[in-house]
Amino acid sequence: MNQSFHQVGFKILLLLLISSVTLAQKPNFKNLQIELQVIQKQLVPDKRVAILDVSLLDTLKPTIILKGKTDLPEAKQKITDLLSSSGIRFVDSLNVLPEKSLGDKIWGLATLSVSSLRSGPDHANEMLTQAVMGTPMKVLEYMDGWYRVQTPDGYIGWMEGNGLAYFNLEELNQWKKSNRYIFNCISGNAFEAPSKKSLVVTDLVLGDLFEVTAETKGFLKMKTPDGRIGFVKKSDCLSWSDWTTRKPNVQAMISIARKMLGSPYLWGGTSSKAMDCSGFTKTSYYSQGIILARDASQQTRYGEHPDFKNITSLQPGDLLFFGRSAQRVTHVGLYMGNGRFIHSSGMVRINSLDPNDPVFSETLLKKLVNAGRILNSLNTEGIFSVKDHVWYSLP
Prior knowledge:
Helix content is 23%, strand content 34%. By secondary structure, it is an alpha+beta fold. The protein has a 7-stranded antiparallel sheet. Strands 16-15-14-11-17 form a 5-stranded antiparallel sheet.
């Protein structure tokens, strides 16, 4: 990214000079705005995982105002350096996130079984993704009871404050050291007492992460990130150690995926309650301690790419990508073997690439544009092991 910026920055600098920019003369404001847009696209090609909202305010004076916000300090530095070296007078009002009003409480954990992240600080805004209980997040800013956060896969959205417990780094590190367990069933509950006949404290979904403080009568005494106490069946859970040290098991993952058959499709859904296509593959892989990129158009970029046109070259656990082209992926499914794949389309269902199979989908076969193999590429870009992700574990 740095190299591409310098290449583009040099071209932009020439344009600025050609525009007769001097210390005593104001640059062509319209041209400068266009050039700034080019910089933003180069520094942040994917706005889903980074913030660089920059604009220029014409003050009708020789000095202009650089305003906006970014979570990339290096991006601000490059923009201000470029303006300064070009002789442009400006007032720097470009804020770097996290915003200062948050103090040192710039880390958070999702407290509900599933919390939704939206495109803006209001329920009327589009749901972008979700976070299950215990998901660590970076807190970027606050507005009217909502927090702008970034999830471990880099995705950014707005989350209602009542679903978030926020911490400083020392407190987050204490959570990393705690006795954590993951809920290993599609759905369930935590109860007020070690009995399924007692009142429910919270519902639970696959992947929820919580502290455990004691064990009694086959139940774990658990504590949610916001401090609620409940009891959950031990047999429904895995310890952090068992979850993160075991080798990812493709057949176990496919078994988990099959348990979600019939679950409804939900745009932005990323839990076993309801999910979109990439939320389904992401949830399936997360059951094995692997974090995938959020969207199908992102997932297709990473890992190995076997020959998707030859069924015999595919392996169970591969991701199948569908769309208009390899550059315009709109759907993803999980390959099960023997030509069959499971995916979320209307609901979680099974289809096949084999014309002789009763669940063959000619439409999807025509739209198959890529395949991805994940397990040989752990801890490479876009594919992370939970145990090695610094937001979950101490270095």
